[in-house]
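Narrative of activities, Objective 1.

The group set out to show that a structural description can be obtained from nothing but a protein's sequence at a throughput compatible with the screening campaign. Below is one input-output pair from the validation batch, recorded exactly as produced.
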Amino acid sequence: MSTYENHKWVIPDKVLIYQRSGSPKYQMRLKVPDRTGYIVKSTKETDASLAEDTARKEYISLAYKVENNLEIEKYDFLKLYRTWWKREKTSKSDARIRYIEGTIERYFVPYFTEVLSNKSITTLTDLDFEDYWTWRIGYWSSPKGKNNVSRTSKRNNNQSNQRHSKKGNIKERPSDKTLQMEQSLMKQIFWWGHRRGIVDRQPFIKSPKDASKKNLQVARRPTFELDEWRKLYRYMRVWVQGEEGGEQPRKNGNFAKTTSVMKRTHSLHIFQRNLIRNYVLFVANSGLRPNEARQLRWRDIKTTTDGHKYIYVRPTTKTGERDTFPLPHAFRYLERVIEQSEYMGDDDLVFGNKEGNPVANFGKIFKTILTDTNLLFDSEGRVRTIYSLRHFYATQRLSSKTKPIPMEVLAQNMGTSPQMMFTHYRHLTTHNFAEILTAR
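Output recorded for this entry:
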């Protein structure tokens, strides 16, 4: 006690205030109720009476946290994230894990630890969260962001640390959907921290929208017109046969040097192309999300008592388990997979690679196909992705002249809400009633 100056017991044996030599501000030492140890921190007050009030309030808050089994340690962002992720990771799918770890390591960690100098969670303000979006939107066009892309352009992807992986799909201005997903993730972390008593309030977290694309928020999703779809599957019909690059020239009986790349067809090449082709055709005729098809196992293909085949979608996917009924000829493409696959056990992946393991990225290969066929962009300049196959399925089912599907039924089959279907596909309902609407 001799090292303390102007010390005073605010609550005997529980709360003490004092001054350190050379500092006018009072410190407080709080005994943790029903536990061993103390918490020592500054009251930030130079007046003794104000310091006493601060210490009492802090002790009351500490006692409440202990009584309700809430966290009482000091947290920065990394500690909050790691504590939250340790509890949450086991409940996430592989795809969700990659997204969360990639986003946090690539954006959240640099912002909260570097830009905000690793501020304590309890000192973060709403302005700190608001400034994140300005920093995030401008990151890849900033000198640091450009250097990041340049530095990693020749690097192999690092699955163990997404922050240091190759940056292959970067937009200078992230889409509103990307920012909304980051908003949701940030809320999960900080609002969980609030429930645990780590964060003293629920911070206001709201991503901005791009005003120039306001009308695209409820726009039609990028899909394929029928003639574009025919162009795509006809191209793939030839594409799966591989490419012949000719023979390497010989000189005096030996292979001669050449600067051209010799492309040769081999069995793995053919296997991979057939797999992606069947995957594309299956998704376009089933409406499954890409990750739902990616997780599909042979035991998930089922048949009703009256002979209708359907797919059991696993609970580890985006919206959980459901039964979905693809178009009957979608199963034809699964039969083609059977012809070349060696993994046909109940628990084997339908769209596994040559070794039966999950394929890392169907979307990357599909983007190359769309680029080669000049189908990467729709008429409004929106980029098509492998998700566009799901939108193609929805468009065709809703606009069918012979067997149109009610939105509510199709929404349930596709694992989404009727409101979401109406938002993005409502234009199709007017087409179905064109004859009535144009009658005199």
